Amino acid sequence: MASSDRRGPYVCGLDAAMDVVSGKWKSLILWELHHHGTRRFGELRRGLPGVSEKMLVQHLREMEQDGLIDREVYREVPPRVEYSLTEHGRTLNEALRPLGAWGTRRRERLAAEGRLTSV
After folding, report:
1. Number of C-alpha atoms within 13 angstroms, CB side, residue 118?
2. Which of 44, 22, 42, 45 is nearest to 33 (CA)?
């Protein structure tokens, strides 16, 4: 279900939050923009190995619609488009920080148990 297909009613705050970050790539796009700043499309794609162009375009459009990222188009030849986090996107990234820490501990535990090949 695309982000634009779902706009409540929400059962709880977590439901509303997950609606915005659903999909494998959105949290990784947030991370990439947080750690590397403003990025062009090609830079984002190279920073997210495995993402298809179609999926990246879809997620960027949804994230722009949700107010998480800004898309700046420069009228030059060839055209240049840059993406950056909005303040709303930065606050979401901050809210996801504890989840990322939990995931790091999970990866370490799985590696210690021999169920993960690399950390």
Report:
1. 0
2. 44
**Residues 83 and 60 sit within 8 Å (Cβ to Cβ):** yes
Q: CA–CA distance from 102 to each of 30, 97, 98 (Å)?
A: 17, 9, 6
* pTM score: 0.84
Q: What is the pLDDT of residues 69-90, one digit of tens each?
A: 999 999 999 889 999 999 999 9
Domains of the chain: 7-104 (1.10.10.10)
For residue 117, the model assigns a pLDDT of 72
Average pLDDT of the chain is: 90
Nearest to 96 by CA among 4, 37, 36, 22: 22
The full length of the chain comes to 119
The structure tokens listed for 59 are 């997620």
Structure tokens at 41: 């499309």
Tokens at residue 105, please? 């501990």
